[in-house]
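Notebook, student rotation project (T.W.).
Task set for the rotation: take a protein with a known small-molecule partner, predict the structure of the complex, and write up what can be learned from the model alone. Partner molecule chosen: flavin-adenine dinucleotide. Sequence and SMILES entered below by T.W., checked by me.
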Amino acid sequence: MTQTAPAFTGRLVTPADADFDEAVLGRVFNHRRPSRRPDAVLLAQTEDDIVAGVRLAAENGWSVAVRSGGHAWAAWSVRDGGLLIDLGDYRGIDYDEATGIVSATPSTKGGEELSPFLEERGRFFNGGHCPTVGIGGFLLQGGQGWNQRGWGWAAESVVAIDVVTADGELVRADETQNADLYWAARGAGPSFPGIVTRFHLKTRPLFGGLAHTVQAFRPEEFTEVMTWMYDATLRIPTNVEIVVVGMYLPDEDGEPGEPGFIVTGLAFGDDLAHAQASLEIFRENPALPRAIVVKDAAPSSLAEQRVEQIRSNPEEHQYLTDNIWVDGDTAEIVERIRPLFTELPTKKAFTIWMSNLPTRPLPDMAFGLHTGAYVATYCCYEDPAEEDANRAWMSRVLTDAQPVTAGQYLGDSDFTQRQLRFTTDEAYARLQQIMADRDPDGRFVRYLASDPATLNHNHWEL
Ligand SMILES: Cc1cc2nc3c(=O)[nH]c(=O)nc-3n(C[C@H](O)[C@H](O)[C@H](O)COP(=O)(O)OP(=O)(O)OC[C@H]3O[C@@H](n4cnc5c(N)ncnc54)[C@H](O)[C@@H]3O)c2cc1C
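Predicted structure of the complex:
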């Protein structure tokens, strides 16, 4: 360090400190840990700490990486060299009843903190499914929250952000001021040229009832069920989140049992009766007589859904994840994605198909690519020796799916492993320009990529 560190309310941790590694990695959800290490970690507690941290980095010629919730699968916040500003101890949520706008710091956990806070006030924000995901990284990359199919990307509800720029200035960005930063913050993901210190979010009235349909099948039913699903999804009302999950079905002890897949509908209704009625079309599933387990429009709650999310994404595990936006002829899609659901490599691995139909046009923001359905696969394991086999499986099934792949979502991606298109060419060019204008010296780290020059291209099309 060339300059004396300013007095932070939080703490600057350097390699000389015994807890340096804990500061670097302790809050990273994925236990498949990188060997990268920054020069220092600032455990920021206040907005002033963040401003001072960016200025200290400038004085030392350091790059700056940021961590909010620590849930980026590829541990994007952990870089070689530079300063990691960790926002985990910088906390706050405020709600304005007059406007229905909630303001929250980026490490706020969407499901565990923001949602209960809003529920008490009769409001809702469609944060990420896993309750511990931080709103920071989630919103910056688009945000596939509850019922994204019907309510849109969570980033569409961002009305303003507060940002520390590369010059160490704190500014507000919205439609009328610093509009370039506001545009970029809704889709740039881990290459935003600034640090967001607060998100100001539009909330919606809390739904009155939640109902859940689950139908479990053996793998041999996949083609028939998915083909029906593609047609049915266009008729199922848009207050229903529709997900198909390839998995080892839980046995009576809740442990992964036989391979199979589940079709699920989660309806957010004005009341329970409305939610239950919204799930009617699932009863038309032609394979229903052969379902192993059926839960039909059962009353549910967000608390129950959160428990299920935590069960599916256990902590202290290693994860390899990847994803695709699929597009094209339905029969070909179903055939090409089938191995992702029916040939899972380990008992804890799972793959989701999430309906995004009918596809809505996107507003003008950096997030610019989605199709009618999202497929993401998660290889979860405890023994590092399993990594190679999982990686080989993922590579094989995703290569087979290339003819129906339009691109990918930043949220479940890892550009050090595979680079795909994630927004339109036009949006990507505009984003590059904003990054160059706002951060000409590259103070803030950019996408962690194996080849930055070929980002936003499907690698097999180059
Ligand atoms: C178990 C689990 C479940 C998930 N479920 C969902 C889901 O339902 N929907 C979905 O869309 N995604 C989901 N994700 C993906 C998740 O949203 C992304 O990984 C997201 O980046 C996590 O945000 P974070 O703040 O927790 O992560 P972090 O690792 O803290 O942040 C990721 C990156 O975002 C950037 N960033 C974060 N905060 C700031 C900031 N304040 N200013 C500037 N840049 C910042 C930085 O580049 C940072 O490295 C899930 C991930 C996990 C592990």
